[in-house]
Amino acid sequence: MKKVVNRKLTKKDIQDFKQKRFIHNGMEYIFKWAKKQFVLEQMPPDIGIKITNYFNIITQGIVPIDLFNNPFILRCSKFRVKNLQRGAQRKISQQLIEDNRIFPIIRESNDQSLNEYPKENSAFLNSILEITENTFASYWEQGYRDYKPSHDEVLSSILLQHDGALSIEVPVWTRKKSSLEQFLVKNNENESFSCDFTYSLTGHIDLLLWDSSTQCFIVADYKPEGYFLRSLPQVAVYALILQKNLELSKVLCLSFNKDEAWLYSPQILIEDINPMLEQYGNPSLKWRKIVKSFYKI
Predict the structure, then answer these.
(1) Position 129 in a domain
(2) Among 86, 132, 159, 258, which is least packed by CB within 10 angstroms?
(3) CA dist 171 to 37, 48, 176, 229, 264, Å?
(4) What is the total count of domains within the chain?
(5) Which among 276, 293, 289, 297 has a CA at the least distance from the CA of 95?
(6) Is residue 176, in this structure, part of any structural domain at all?
(7) Residue 248 and residue 240: Cα distance in Å, rounded?
């Protein structure tokens, strides 16, 4: 098995490591931010400033607890593909792949390279799968063949080892008809964050990556069981919230486990997937009106 060569953490990396513990709706989330300066140096200065200020909000605990602890506020995790006919998820997934709307990345058992899309960041995605696989292997080599690393163990391994990994368990939110001025962070008179939406939403991004080859953030979601289509709306909404709040031109999504990954644009939630889902059952499509509202404000 090919081993991942970990980038040696410097004293500066360790000094920049931060974490913040939240209890949201009765569940613990630990936001972790590592290799700050190293990853920020890969970004254009304006994007680096935006993400730094956004993370400052989080590490200072200036997060709308009233939203996250309100059981009536819609969680992005509720956006799941279900109520489809038997076998429909496989059919829809395959069609989206054939139409080049979703790009599968498969790590072969004989250690062949990944499918190269996009070519410039295939190595970037490959290393995520390698680190995930090696996190499992570290236990297997000690004789724990039946042990599966926890969600946090996998994500923390990637955070510390992957050159583009910036943070895990990143809280994101929107608030209905509010400027959220108490949560604004201003660098100067022309820069601020706006979380003003038509709907209130909350969520936590598993893993946030910066891909310097494509110059964009990747919102990644670890799904050890696979079945990426089931949680695709959840991950895509995370990306759309981040894109709008930080005024970014592009964000990508990645769903992955130790063997394979699926790369896609969050725009798929607007352009492609809804009519396909309706052909194979009676899904609720809770996200449809919400996502459309993102572009009307």
Answers:
(1) yes
(2) 86
(3) 21, 18, 17, 22, 21
(4) 1
(5) 276
(6) yes
(7) 10
Tell me if 255 sits within 8 A of 262, measured CB to CB: yes
Domain span including residue 236: 27-293
* Dist. CA 297–CA 292, nearest whole Å: 10
Residue with tokens 């910036």: 166
Cα 159 from Cα 35, distance rounded (Å): 8
Token couple for 8: 């040696």
Tens of pLDDT, residue by residue over 56-101, are 989 888 888 888 999 889 999 999 998 888 889 999 999 999 998 9
pLDDT at 185 over 70: no
Please report which helix (H) or strand (E) contains residue 173, including its range. strand 165-176
Model's pTM, two decimal places? 0.85
Q: How far is the CA of 184 from the CAs of 33, 57, 179, 187, 192, in angstroms? A: 20, 8, 9, 10, 6
Mean pLDDT of the chain: 81
Which tokens go with 222? 């670890």
